[in-house]
């Protein structure tokens, strides 16, 4: 009984775990949780967006107690051992599987502590902001009521988090977080979170991301360090982005309706 | 240059770190960040409440880049090494200082992974719910506008988190989280979070906590495992509780005004 990953490639922490295993040559079985069939969503397209904006961990009703009593993705089963929460999964795999290079999760206690610190910070900052923003900005596409205050609050947390990454976590001349010249699990986790912004309208994405030049370069560095797996695992998200672009273009008015009050608030 | 802890005993993660060090006989210097003087808050009492409901990490403008560029508590300095985020601090101290019993942060990879999983879950569940709820329910005392929707949302997340602790994390016959018979850093972190509810009006506290019998017993178990340090470190919170009780009694109408819409929403 080898390592089983219960994942959805549209969920950002699922992608981080998948890319990590592929980049480190770890054998695993990818168990795709077929959300469409289970949630009986229709039309299929709307279901896809719903998945892509749902948080950090993804509630899957039928994942069941056998795998994860909280019914969320990603989850893993390694022999008889079950685990969820993506950061914990990344740390476990980096520690338990031979052949993972030290830079992903260094044995040195101070380096390791700094990586924990970034990962802890992630939850209530970058992740929290990105999830609130995406969920609310895409509400009209999901057929949900638009909560402009929530979207504005999410955008504020998201932009503040990107500034902290730019000015604090990416300080120095390194290519990765904490001034490192090689990536860690924290780089992968945070970059996958930011990649979720790809499904935004191009103008929104650029407005939020483009002022953060170091962040953009760091995303490229992480992509390069894990190629070709990074793009292969993100391929489903790129397809969704393409589908949504057509929607945005066809529905300029709706877009305008969302953005005007947001811009005026910030 | 020994271990320095930059803490405020009214901040829940600061207390977790303090109790952990005291319970494990670790030498440290407690550097109390004197928030009153720096924030120039007046009257002093209101300042105290403000501190007690501010999140997980506490923003201290004057903490400065030398200690923590994000200017938050708790933070530590160990020789030349600086660290913040309470979970990361607990893990670092448990790993770097001799004499910490294995049960606090087990060397076994699967046990350790489960503790990471609880700690990761904490951020966007128990901590998130408790902070939103406390900040909003105490808004009138802080002279801030009451956001009933936010308070109701915080209470919902908080109660859901307590149910998950009761039914999932405290499953089995153990005395602590994950069915353990000895406490880990996760017990201390989560219990200190819940202890912040002590500053609520007694009726609110009981309404939220009393249905969770296992949670109440587990708080007692954690208190017993770390005595006398647990109560000694919480003493400032108990004093605040006493002061606030008098306020609640003197201001029954305000209390009623907060609770009615909350109850009707949930």
UniProtKB/TrEMBL annotation, chains A, B:
Catalytic EC class: transferase
A GO MF term: glutathione transferase activity
Record's keyword terms, sorted: Detoxification, Transferase
Domain GST N-terminal: 1-101
TM regions (residue ranges): none
Residues in GST C-terminal domain copies: 108-262
SUPFAM superfamilies on file: GST C-terminal domain-like, Thioredoxin-like
GO biological process: toxin catabolic process
CDD domains: GST_C_Theta (cd03183), GST_N_Theta (cd03050)
Assigned EC number: 2.5.1.18
Record carries keyword Transferase: yes
Catalysis performed (reactions): RX + glutathione = an S-substituted glutathione + a halide anion + H(+)
Similarity section: Belongs to the GST superfamily. Theta family.
Protein name from the UniProt record: glutathione transferase
Organism from which the protein derives: Lupinus angustifolius
């Amino acid at each position: 009984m080898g390592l089983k990953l219960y994942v959805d490639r549209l969920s950002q922490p699922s992608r981080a775990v998948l890319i990590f295993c592929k980049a480190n040559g770890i054998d695993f079985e990818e168990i795709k949780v077929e959300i469409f069939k289970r949630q009986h969503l229709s039309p299929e397209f709307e279901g896809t967006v719903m998945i892509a904006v749902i948080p950090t961990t993804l509630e899957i009703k039928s994942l069941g107690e056998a795998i994860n009593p909280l019914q969320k993705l990603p989850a893993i089963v390694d022999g008889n051992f079950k685990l969820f929460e993506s950061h914990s999964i990344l740390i476990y795999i980096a520690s338990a599987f031979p052949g993972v290079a030290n830079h992903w999760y260094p044995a040195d206690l101070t380096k390791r502590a700094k990586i924990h610190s970034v990962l802890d910070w992630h939850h209530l900052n970058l992740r929290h902001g990105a999830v609130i923003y995406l969920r609310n900005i895409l509400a009209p596409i999901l057929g949900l009521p638009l909560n402009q205050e929530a979207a504005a609050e999410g955008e504020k947390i998201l932009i503040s988090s990107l500034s902290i990454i730019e000015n604090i976590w990416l300080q120095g001349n390194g290519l990765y977080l904490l001034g490192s010249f090689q990536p860690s699990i924290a780089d992968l986790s945070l970059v996958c979170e930011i990649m979720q912004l790809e499904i935004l309208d191009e103008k929104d994405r650029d407005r939020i991301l483009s002022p953060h030049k170091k962040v953009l370069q760091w995303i490229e560095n992480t992509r390069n360090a894990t190629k070709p797996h990074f793009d292969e695992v993100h391929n489903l998200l790129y397809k969704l982005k393409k589908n949504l672009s057509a929607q945005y273009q066809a529905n300029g008015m709706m877009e305008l309706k969302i953005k005007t009050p947001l811009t005026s608030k910030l």
